[in-house]
Design a protein that fits this description.
alpha+beta; OB fold (Dihydrolipoamide Acetyltransferase, E2P); two-stranded antiparallel ribbon; about 30% strand
Length: about 250
């Protein structure tokens, strides 16, 4: 049994995979325990007694939580698939990260500086405006607040899936586009040591880069995205290969 403190949990992906394995999703289950006349449950050792006892039937309804569903899926996948497991301090290579392979990897989650600035721009701007209202901000500080406003507007450019990075020893980086609605706690709480459970989407060779910021509505193929990355000189807007892109089901500690 594993106890997990979830920081990110993709309900849609977990339920989709679980429904394939189990033929559907259930929210509750009835569990019945019947005590026989000896006072022992079926399968237990009888306790001799000179007193008569009666049959006792007990019923309880177990409600399925997100943690319970994930644990069921984790067990099904572990039993039927070759899961890539990487512990603290372990290394892996791109050849290990085959497309569609499930993996459980321990490492350090990092928020790229460009994503961190954009995602937190509104908070920084609000703090700056408060300082300005109490008269503790000069003209240079007001310019910074204005620039933070532009960053806040740029949030649309990263869409609803800001990419984070998982660092694992000396292994290639793992890029994790995360759906904001499935972040269990605050965005910044994702940083730090954690375990990531997901499925390999694709690998990025050393000669390519992954764009952190995308133009809204722009749909590029894998080849077009890599070509655009090679031709750009803006290092802050890209993550360099080699790397692996993961479809993340959960992040936990």
């Amino acid at each position: 049994m594993k106890f997990r403190d979830f920081l990110y949990y993709d309900t849609n992906m977990v339920e989709s995979f679980l429904s394939i394995v189990e033929g559907g999703i259930y929210d509750e289950e009835d569990r019945h325990v019947t005590l026989d006349t000896s006072g022992a449950a079926p399968g237990e050792e009888e306790v001799l007694s000179d007193r008569f006892s009666t049959t006792d039937s007990r019923r309880k309804v177990v409600r399925q939580t997100e943690a319970a569903r994930f644990d069921r899926l984790f067990g099904h996948v572990s039993d039927s698939e070759d899961v890539l497991t990487v512990g603290s301090g372990d290394r892996f290579s791109l050849t290990d990260a085959e497309d569609d392979r499930f993996c459980e990897i321990k490492g350090v989650v990092e928020i790229p500086p460009a994503i961190n600035a954009i995602m937190n721009a509104a908070t920084f701007r609000a703090a700056g405006e408060f300082v300005d209202r109490i008269g503790m901000l000069d003209a240079e500080g007001r310019k910074v607040i204005e620039q933070l406003g532009y960053l806040d507007q740029a949030r649309e450019a990263i869409g609803d899936t800001p990419p984070l990075v998982l660092k694992v020893a000396s292994s290639p980086s793992l890029i994790m586009p995360l759906r904001q609605e499935f972040i269990v706690r605050g965005f910044n709480d994702l940083e730090g040591r954690a375990t990531v459970y997901g499925r390999v989407a694709e690998t990025i060779p050393a000669s390519s880069r992954y764009p952190l910021i995308k133009i809204p509505g722009q749909q590029l193929t894998r080849q077009q995205r890599r070509k655009a990355a090679r031709s750009s000189s803006d290092d802050a807007a890209y993550l360099k290969g080699p790397a692996t892109i993961l479809h993340v089901l959960a992040i936990y500690r």
